[in-house]
Amino acid sequence: MAYLTAPLTIGNLHLKNRLVMPPMATSKAGPDGEITPELLQYYDEKTRGGYFGMVITEHSFVSADGKASANQISSADDDKVSGLSQLSDVIHKNGSPAVLQLNHAGSGTKQSVTGSQPVAPSPVMNPSKAEMELPHELTHREIERIANDFANAALRGKQAGFDGVEIHSCHGYLLDQFLSPLTNRRTDEYGGKIEDRIRIHLQVLKAVRNMVGRDFPVLFRLAVTDYMDGGLSLADSIAAAGLLEAAGTDIIDVSGGMCRYTAPGIEEMHYFTNQAKAIRRVVSIPVVVTGGIKTAKAAEELLQNHDADLVGVGRAVLHDSNWAKNAVKSLSV
Ligand SMILES: Cc1cc2nc3c(=O)[nH]c(=O)nc-3n(C[C@H](O)[C@H](O)[C@H](O)COP(=O)(O)O)c2cc1C
Questions:
Q1: Is the pTM of this model over 0.85?
Q2: Ligand 1 within 6 A of 169 CB?
């Protein structure tokens, strides 16, 4: 049997293969973040046939001040649970488990989107995007509130029938801003060494676990590099992965930080794979890697090399809704 088509069980999560549909924002939600027919149709098309071992839905905002962009999905209110149930239903009916991604944008947004000044660990401009706004530094009380917002959103995901939640700490958004030395200049217990820069992650995870219980799968999408001078080091990401595992994370999903999900100037495929491999060496929970993987052969080789346990394929699937079907079938003959 090919590595890509081998099943994997992680606690209560039974994956029929190692192929992951990674979160990809569609901007198809309603103005208040509600699930729309267009969005359901998109997920139906992408997940038809159940060829993905796991589908992670696009980032949803856990609170109004953490909304990243217009027409983003909301997990911020109880009235969103019924719409989110429709979303998990579509993916389940097609035959794949569904994981809801949870996000707070921090300074990776604008006042015109959130209605308030963006927030961040420190009042520095976000280097992940052009034309950002100066955020205000979060107080301890606000950090506590945001941890609870993640927890409430996670519970909504569980109530909506999702099989797990993924906490977003990549691509220049709030938790990633705490992770990166470029954006975290705090001198209190949330800044400085890596154990302190991921204090908020552990706080969020604890709050989420209190809400959803130990058996509900919780994934972390963890940045492994900023590909910028003075940015996040791999050693710090490795340490963070170990601490997140020890605190009860079920899966580490590797991607970029301030460089977002690509690696500028690096043309070769698999631009986060070396980092994923390094993390996989120190944790015993499964590791997902996504980034630049375009062919079933490449995904299979990556798994054969034990670089990761699961492979995400994003833009290739965006461009071709039959990509997963063709990939699985090509490896099943
Ligand atoms: C249009 C688009 C939207 C994305 N939205 C999200 C998102 O909501 N959350 C997230 O963690 N990653 C997001 N990503 C990153 C993807 O999950 C993935 O990591 C990235 O596309 C690199 O993988 P690929 O080379 O297979 O496309 C997005 C990527 C694209 C192209």
A1: yes
A2: no
One digit per residue, the tens of pLDDT, for the chain of length 333 reads 899 999 999 998 999 999 999 999 999 999 999 999 999 999 999 999 999 999 999 999 999 999 999 999 999 999 999 999 999 999 999 999 999 999 999 999 999 999 999 999 999 999 998 888 999 999 999 999 999 999 999 999 999 999 999 999 999 999 999 999 999 999 999 999 999 999 999 999 999 999 999 999 999 999 999 999 999 999 999 999 999 999 999 999 999 999 999 988 776 668 999 999 999 999 999 999 999 999 999 999 999 999 999 999 999 999 999 999 999 999 886
Count the Cβ atoms, other than its own, within 10 Å of residue 196. Answer: 16
Ligand 1: which residue has its CA nearest to atom 11? 23
Considering only CA atoms, which residue is closest to atom 22 of ligand 1?
A: 291
- Give the number of the atom of ligand 1 that is nearest the alpha carbon of residue 58: 8
Question: How far apart, in whole angstroms, are the C-alpha atoms of residue 163 and residue 248?
Answer: 16
Q: Give the chain's domain count.
A: 1
Classify residue 216: in a domain, yes or no.
Answer: yes
What CATH number should be reported for the domain holding residue 113? Answer: 3.20.20.70
Residues in the chain: 333
